[in-house]
Amino acid sequence: VRFHLNNIRDKKHLNAFLSVYEDEALARAAEIDKKIKLGTAGKLAGLVVGLKDVLAYKDHPLQASSRVLDGFISQFNGTAVQRLLDEDAIIIGRQNCDEFAMGSSNENSAFGPVLNDADNTRVPGGSSGGSAVAVQADMCQVSLGSDTGGSVRQPAAFCGLVGLKPTYSRISRFGLIAYGSSFDCIGIFGKSVEDVALVLEVIAGPDEADSTVSQLPVPSYSKALQGSDNKKYKVAYVREIDDSQGLQPEIKESILAKLDAIEADGHSVEVIDFPLQEFVLPTYYILATAEASSNLSRYDGVRYGYRSQQATDLSSLYKKSRSEGFGKEVQRRILLGTFVLSASYYDAYYTKAQKVRRLIRDKTKEILKHYDFIVMPITPTTAFKLGEHTDNPLEMYLADLFSVQANVVGVPAIAIPCGTDKQGLPIGLQVIADDFEESKLLHFSNTLL
Ligand code: GLN
Predict the structure, then answer these.
(1) pTM of the full predicted structure?
(2) Ligand 1 atom, smallest distance to 407 CA
(3) What is the pLDDT of residues 16-58, one digit of tens each?
(4) Which atom of ligand 1 has the smallest separation from the CA of 146?
(5) Which InterPro entries does its entry note (predicted)?
């Protein structure tokens, strides 16, 4: 714990943490040391974990990096957090992120941007940027983030980490601040697949507090990693991505080189067509903003956090609290979402996007019937400069081109490090598997490192 606290102190300029629970973490470590001596310590004894500021930790601040939740203190533990504590993990602090997890660079936080530890002039990715940098800079061993459209995998790629988005519904969302509820997943950052697998098996599984969570039993993911390496898989690579104009050449080269290595290892690799590729991003942004506009209606200046002092009546209380409390990008998403849900445009946008989502899911599932994995980039570029895309939201949304498919479909996907570009910036490789195939996904990914 002291080692990590020192790193947090030394690298304060990275702005990864919003709160550090120093005394608590040290006290807990001392308690766990005693348990270890008695042989009663849990499975994660002493694992130092950080939480993205969207996960409820009882009696600690929680505000999704937003002014609108100023002063809000969580009254309960989210299920994933409770399960970590039950197995004797140590929570070291609350991590900076894009406001309400909306963003791809961590520049939308009310607390300022997070800097990438590989190059302080560059973004760490988003929205779970603080969680990624915290692991990158050894401020904790593992972080929990949330992945609605890539927010764990994309920053993992920009920071050279392993980042897992499990199958939708594999981990309870109880105690996770909602963004797009049909996409939201808690995800895990680590430096190794082993760490991620171990945490997943602790936090996944049925939960009475979340009616959407899967009832399927949770296998031992960490044991699955020890399985024999002789299994040969069928891997698909999407032609449309290969042809994609915006893909940085070095990313393409590293992924093709990795695919060659996969083939040389005795697996089969085939190039396949996915003609729906161009519809994935627009589908995501229509549906995620629609859900966000509904989810964020609860922040009304009455129930939680921030309340405007300028209000003169009830309607101005709502308007002013929301206008002053929410940042620009969140307001943009609420407006977009409200527009696509409005009576005159509902069918043209929302209903249409739902239909396209179904087509994308069916087509992806069809591919995953014939292949064990789909391999693709996570991001079109490596970590970009701070401020590079802040004036152009569309450009920023394009950073999510390859990460949103797994969320639109619901299947699990992982980011693993795959070399660096000429400037030494990390490149990430994405592997996607079928629903609830995390054991296979983790096992295969581990052999690629
Ligand atoms: N960058 C995407 C967005 O802004 C994904 C965010 C996320 O996964 N939370 O919607």
Answers:
(1) 0.97
(2) 8
(3) 999 999 999 999 999 999 999 999 999 999 999 999 999 999 9
(4) 9
(5) Amidase (IPR000120), Amidase_dom (IPR023631), AS_sf (IPR036928), GatA (IPR004412)
Q: Which residue has the tokens 């152009």?
A: 392
Round to whole Å and give the CA distance between 446 and 289: 34
Question: Does residue 105 contact residue 150 with C-beta atoms inside 8 Å?
Answer: no
Cβ of 179 below 6 Å from ligand 1 = yes
pLDDT digits (tens, 9 = 90+) for 318-370: 999 999 999 999 999 999 999 999 999 999 999 999 999 999 999 999 999 99
Residue 277 contacts by C-beta under 8 Å, 6 or more apart in sequence?
238, 240, 241
**HSE-up of 45 (CA within 13 Å, CB side)?**
14
Tell me, yes or no, if 105 is annotated catalytic. no
Q: Is the CB of 417 under 6 A from ligand 1?
A: no
- 202-212 pLDDT, tens digit per residue, is 999 999 999 99
403 is catalytic: no
* Res 393 pLDDT > 90: yes
What structural domains and CATH numbers belong to the chain?
2-225 (3.90.1300.10)
- Output the CA 389–ligand 1 centroid distance in Å: 15
The residue type of 117 is D
CA gap 373, 68 in Å, rounded: 41
Q: What DSSP designation does 149 have?
A: S
104 C-beta closer than 6 A to ligand 1: yes
User: How many whole angstroms separate alpha carbon 65 and alpha carbon 135?
Assistant: 19
**147 ligand 1 Cβ < 6 A:** yes
Measuring CA to CA, which residue among 17, 96, 120, 153 is closest to residue 385? 120
Q: Which of 11, 52, 258, 440 is catalytic?
A: 52
Query: ipTM > 0.90?
Result: yes
Which residue has its alpha carbon closest to ligand 1 atom 2?
149
For the stretch 50-65, pLDDT in tens is 999 999 999 999 999 9
Atom 10 of ligand 1, residue of closest alpha carbon: 102
Query: Which residue among the candidates 74, 127, 172, 321 is catalytic per the annotation?
Result: 127
What are the residue ranges of helices labelled H in 265-351?
Answer: 277-295, 314-325, 328-341
